[in-house]
Amino acid sequence: xxxxxxxxxxxxxxxxxxxxxxxxxxxxxxxxxxxxxxxxxxxxxxxxxxxxxxxxxxxxxxxxxxxxxxxxxxxxxxxxxxxxxxxxxxxxxxxxxxxxxxxxxxxxxxxxxxxxxxxxxxxxxxxxxxxxxxxxxxxxxxxxxxxxxxxxxxxxxxxxxxxxxxxxxxxxxxxxxxxxxxxxxxxxxxxxxxxxxxxxx
Length: 201
Hints:
Layout (H helix, E strand, L loop, with lengths): L1 H45 L7 H23 L2 H13 L7 H12 L7 E5 L8 E8 L4 E8 L2 E11 L3 E3 L4 H9 L6 H11 L2
Antiparallel strand pairs: 1-2, 1-5, 2-3, 3-4
Helix pairs in contact: 1-2
């Protein structure tokens, strides 16, 4: 009974650690979208179009949101923008729960970060058994911090520090790896098929 209660507790906490930062991001995006929606509604009214044309207003708001994200991305590529981003990360973003993890995972999904959250096969105990996990961080002494998820909840697991020689990099996406973990190992073959295909080139 105690093991079941502990499982429920740790799983719920793991889910909460994912929900909270996602909820914060969605809340911010919702506020921005609402502001853009109000501006689009006023613009449509000012130029004489039907104010109740909800599809047009939503389309303008969505395009504006994408444009805002795009031009913000251009801005942070400048020297001043990069300095501003670093200041925000040091003084603001790090106070947000799980910001670094979510940012790294988002970059990995977008193909912008090739290191953090890389899917790996890990030799944990010098045996024939291997674990599927994610490379989180490389340490200065040729060791690595890896996250080994617990199936079927990919956000719950353990952190291990192992030597880099114990890792086999998988040429698989984060999404495919999470899918395999959440399905108790179903479709794990897809993670290795890509490795085999690349090794024959």
